[in-house]
Please model this.
Amino acid sequence: MKNTLVYITDENYVMPTCVSVTSLLSHVNNITIYILCDRISPISKEYLEQLDKGANIVHLIEIDCNVFQDIKEDFTEEHTYVTRTSFFKFHLPNILENEDTVLYLDSDVIVNGDISEIFSLDLTNKYVASVDDIGDEGNKNGCSVLGKKLAGVQREHYFNSGVMYLNLAEMRNNNVSEKLIYYRTAYHNNFMDQDALNAVLGEKRIILPIKFNFLMSQFDLKTFDEVNNQLFDGKYHSMEECVNDQLILHLTGPYKAWKYYYYPSTNVFLKYYRQSSYNAKKINFLSPICFLSKQLIEWEKNYNRLLKKYKYIHKCKVNMDWHFPRERIPKGSKIILYGAGEIGKFFNYKLKENAYCDVVSWVDTNYMNMNDPNITSPNIITEISFDYILIAVSRDNIVNQIYESLLKLNVDAKKIIKLFSE
Model:
């Protein structure tokens, strides 16, 4: 008997859906995959169809999203990146009427290992098996903050709806689709579909371990030590060890890993992107810090939003080791650190601390005005041996100026590393 999975996608999410399915097929066998589509283009449909490779395991189901046009959109502004196709989840028992159970996966998840054990769970008299939303601080002590905000009910636990093993038969028997639609239309919802799913399904639920839906956005908001201690009792020795040990990685947050360069989310995504049918297309990643910095002027009219964004930028800068391009600079390399601003100083400190690379020289065009004898003129670049030059600067115009000046010094372009270029 084959195990069944389902994805939901629209035109904007076809590419990450393909990457997610590619990661799934790398780790799990004997499966049937349904992909529910809303108004996708013929080209996108071809990309999705290529996933099957003649195995007859990937099936596309096209659905008109207009059936949800009457559902009010009162969710908070900071969560508007959630799309209307998420309401397909409400109708899964009816759409997949011949299936008794199904594993639902969001399009922005990466399957990082064999998840077959999920399919052996006994869902008798249960609606769902899912993971507590680790973004809900209360979940770790059994007193969920988000669960207490649900209208009409209170839950001690609140789950993330990006990974759900669903008992469709039980949901059909109890008219759950209608209950979900009613909750979504009758009450205020902080998260577009997730509140309704928690309110209705939460009463008959199995709690899954974090490894089946690890939210990678935790590393955007907290240091590795905070994540490790709060969620895993300090058992991991590095971020890489922690990530590799999770079976499903959920690339959550508004700044997606296929648009903005985030370590380690983008690295995880690229691993399977390069195995997908999109591998010939180059992604030009944006810097989340630069993008947010350019928006500060526009946010001046709204103090609360401005304050939140400022705190986010500050957090990114304090934890800039998230963005060190380890996938392009091998451990033990001899590097020249170009730039002695905030980023350069932080990298220089961290590299001395962890000895990941050997900083053979630290240069800056403004070295004369810096009270640090370790910082010298970029002219020394032509006199010393090195493997790479890391431009430790975030502003695009300055990065480009430095890049052009290095080319004029006959530096091999392959040895010049920009933080957010690829």
Summary: Confidence is low (pLDDT under 50) at residues 72-82. The chain is about 30% helix and 15% strand. The first strand starts at residue 3 and ends at 10.
